Amino acid sequence: MNRLRLSGSFLAMCALLLASTGCKSVPGRPGPQAMRPSEVMSFPVLYNQNCAACHGEGGRNGAAISLANPIYLQVAGVDKIEQITANGVPKSLMPPFAKSKGGMLTDQQIGVIALGMEANWGNVGSGSNEKLPAYTAATQGNAANGAQAYQTFCARCHGADGTGVKTNGVNSGSIVDPSYLALVSDQGLRSLIIAGQPGQGMPNWKSDISGSGARAMTDQEITDVVAWLASHRIASPGQPYATSID
């Protein structure tokens, strides 16, 4: 009888322990299922995993264009951002992210990223009565005219020839370097001129950077400056391989 009473007490204690833990610690019980990558629908998570390395934490101060920029978001629009994210940008460092293009994101996730940018970083407008330039150029650029427009709007910061300006012994960097131009598309150059780079000292298309009360750039002047920059591209940028091993 004593042995039976002891066994009964032991079983009762086990039952109370299992009830208090919800059976979570029972050996062999499946643990919580990890979320599949395709099920992630959080904008911060998706952005940090797929965009922040190039476009910067919080959409700024990255190597690529700042995305936390109301002007850029307004000019590009959600549909265009979805398209760029899905398909990438040919002849640039922007890869396609859509699964249909060899990427890792579903169409729904790409939509979450585009709408998340608009919700978190957009809805501010250009802050000016100036009409926003079009996202894509509507006309052919003229490099000769672009050289003149460059002197008016860009030379103060980037140097008369585009190779940079020295400030306290530090050069601001060349924007006509063939290696740089090989990594950025004409559309990328246009987007940078229109939207600027907040936090990096790069003003947008309507800012007075000539120091003489200059007006905002016209759409054609933006197109022409892009053409002038593109004219500095060469067929084989970068340091060539040695022709021999002597």
Write the layout of secondary structure elements.
Layout: H1 2-21, H2 43-50, H3 52-55, H4 70-87, H5 107-121, H6 143-153, H7 155-158, E1 166-167, E2 170-171, H8 178-181, H9 186-195, H10 219-230
Antiparallel strand pairs: 1-2
Helix pairs in contact: 2-5, 4-5, 4-9, 6-10, 9-10
Mean pLDDT: 84
Please give the number of β-strands. 2
CATH architecture term of the largest domain: Orthogonal Bundle
The termini sit apart by: 97 Å
Series of H and E elements = HHHHHHHEEHHH
Q: CATH homologous superfamily of the largest domain?
A: Cytochrome c-like domain
Work out the radius of gyration.
28 Å
User: According to CATH, what is the topology of the largest domain?
Assistant: Cytochrome Bc1 Complex, Chain D, domain 2
Number of continuous helical runs? 10
Provide a quick synopsis of the model:
Helices cover 43% and strands 2% of the residues. The protein contains ten helices and two strands.
Core attributes:
single chain; mainly alpha; Cytochrome Bc1 Complex, Chain D, domain 2; two-stranded antiparallel sheet; 10 helices; 2 strands; 2% strand; elongated
